[in-house]
Design brief:
The chain is an alpha+beta fold and 172 residues long. It has 6 helices and 7 strands, in the order E-E-H-E-E-H-H-H-H-E-E-E-H.
Amino acid sequence: NISAVPFTYQNQNGALVFARDITGRKRAEAALVESEARFRATFEQAAVGMAQVGLDGRWLRVNQRICDIVGYSREELLSKKFQDITHPDDLATDLGLVQQVLAGEIQTYSLEKRYIRKNGTIVPVNLTVSLVREPSGKPQHFISVVENITGRKLAEAELQLSQQRLLLHVEQ
């Protein structure tokens, strides 16, 4: 791998040859391409929903799993903000935590909340959010990890119902 400059050579025909070894640069470029491919595969193939979210709440990048959770196509979701699909009763808590992260009061947060799916049904999720900052410290975007907890919520409800039945049986 040779490129123009540093070393100069003049052969017997009077031709001037300029050369530079760029092996290191080529290796670095190949490592960067490989690293980006690994990140993309991890992001896209994760078993949970993953997203990059703008400071204003716009979905910047989403994986297929989060689209499946909320029932929107990638294009539809990218035209929305998380505020648009968050259950109104959960929005104030979520926005308050966002402000705490932006103010540097907390580094990350997790909460159970509800999204409103495209078809109008509610899906309970566990949301974990962290902030990505530029080298200068300026906030850049959020990373959100979304886990559908419908199964767990159903099991909790069944357990609660079973406990109520048992209590009624004991009282009789």
